[in-house]
User: Which sequence fits this backbone?
C-alpha cells in the first residue's frame, strides 16, 4: 500500500509516479520552508521600518535626559545630562570591530542629576594596538555634562551571558563580547543598580574615541539572506521530489494501473 504509486504521469520517455510516504513528507515540509522564507521577508520589512523610525528619532534635537525618559518610546533619542562619572568603574568589551579593525568598547557609570539610578555610558571604541594588548589605554574623563543617545537593549544574549568570564587588568574589567544584561549584572556586583538603558556618547572630533553607532545589530539584509536560503531549500525539495519519483519507462512496462 505504502509503496504503491498515488498516480502516474507519463512525461516523454519517463513516468512520474510518487508513492504516499514521500508525497506526505513533501506536502508537510514544503509549506514550512515557504512560510519560514516569508517570515524572514516580513522581519526584513519590520527592520526597515524600525531603522527608519530610529534614524528619524536619532536626528532630533537633544533634550534633557529626565524629559526624554518621560517619552513613550525614548530609544535612540538624543539627550543631554548633567552629573558626574562614578570613579573606579570601567568596563570594557573586547573583540569589537570598526572598519575591519579589532578593538574595544569602553563603558563607565554615570550618576545623572534628577535620575535616581546610575547609567551605564558607552564612551566609544578604541583600537587594539597589537596582539599582546590586554586592555586599551583609556583617556581620562572630563566634564560634568554628557551628550549622546539612549540605547535600550534589543534582547538578552544567553550565549555571552552563560560564557561570560570577566578579567581584571589595571583596575579595568574586561569581557569578550557585549551583552547589556551581563554588563548590568557586573555593575550590580559592584554595588550599583543601573538604569535599563545605555547612553552612547555623541561623536567628537577632538576625542580619541570612535563613536559610530549602529541603529540595530541585525540589519534587514541578514533576514533577506535567510529568506533566500529557505526558498532555495524549498526549491531543492521540489526538484528532489520530482527527480526521485521520475522513472524511465521500460519497453515491457505500461503506465496503466
Assistant:
Amino acid at each position: 500500500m505504502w509503496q504503491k504509486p498515488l498516480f502516474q504521469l507519463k512525461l516523454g520517455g519517463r513516468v512520474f509516479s510518487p508513492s504516499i510516504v514521500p508525497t506526505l513528507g513533501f506536502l508537510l515540509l514544503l509549506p514550512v520552508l515557504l512560510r519560514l522564507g516569508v517570515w524572514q521577508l516580513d522581519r526584513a520589512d519590520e527592520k526597515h521600518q524600525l531603522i527608519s523610525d530610529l534614524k528619524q528619532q536619532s536626528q532630533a534635537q537633544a533634550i534633557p535626559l529626565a524629559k526624554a525618559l518621560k517619552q513613550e518610546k525614548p530609544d535612540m533619542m538624543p539627550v543631554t545630562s548633567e552629573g558626574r562619572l562614578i570613579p573606579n568603574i570601567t568596563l570594557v568589551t573586547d573583540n569589537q570591530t570598526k572598519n575591519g579593525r579589532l578593538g574595544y568598547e569602553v563603558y563607565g557609570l554615570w550618576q545623572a542629576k534628577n535620575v535616581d539610578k546610575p547609567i551605564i555610558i558607552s564612551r566609544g571604541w578604541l583600537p587594539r594596538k597589537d596582539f599582546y594588548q590586554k586592555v586599551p589605554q583609556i583617556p581620562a574623563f572630563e566634564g560634568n555634562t554628557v551628550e549622546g543617545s539612549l540605547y535600550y537593549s534589543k534582547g538578552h544574549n544567553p550565549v555571552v551571558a552563560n560564557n561570560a568570564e570577566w578579567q581584571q587588568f589595571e583596575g579595568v574589567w574586561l569581557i569578550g563580547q557585549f551583552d547589556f544584561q551581563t554588563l548590568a549584572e557586573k555593575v550590580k556586583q559592584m554595588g550599583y543598580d543601573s538604569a535599563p538603558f545605555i547612553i552612547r556618547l555623541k561623536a567628537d572630533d577632538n576625542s580619541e574615541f570612535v563613536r559610530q553607532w549602529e541603529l540595530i545589530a541585525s540589519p534587514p539584509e541578514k533576514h533577506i539572506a535567510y529568506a533566500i536560503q529557505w526558498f532555495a531549500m524549498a526549491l531543492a525539495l521540489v526538484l528532489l521530489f520530482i527527480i526521485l519519483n521520475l522513472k524511465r519507462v521500460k519497453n515491457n512496462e505500461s503506465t496503466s494501473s
Notes: The mean pLDDT is 85. Residues 1-61+216-257 form one domain. The chain is about 30% helix and 25% strand.
